[in-house]
Structure prediction request, 110 residues.
Amino acid sequence: MAVGTKELTPVELDTFEDERLLDELKKAKEELFNLRFQSATGQLESHGRLRAVKRDIARIYTVIRERELGIRATPAPVEAPAKAEKKTKKAKATASDEDAAAEAAETKEA
Prediction:
């Protein structure tokens, strides 16, 4: 996702979790740093980009602060579907050995 675009609207930022907001903030700050260097060396092509990135940074800070104050609701964490772990032959053998040991222990107790 490019920073400084229409994708970083407040409505879009509301759906981001705190960690993702901090990642976006970090990316925006890095881009601003690079744009400032380009400006200092005379290589900057779009001066409007500086303004857009600064506004994105301010927008992200605003959302973070509003969440701290309880003005904005933090989105509920979305749980990704658990991936089935692929078992190797060694892992399968170990698992079957553990199952057999557990069954033997249960029969001894009974």
Residues 3 and 27 are 8 Å apart (CA to CA). The chain is about 65% helix and 0% strand.
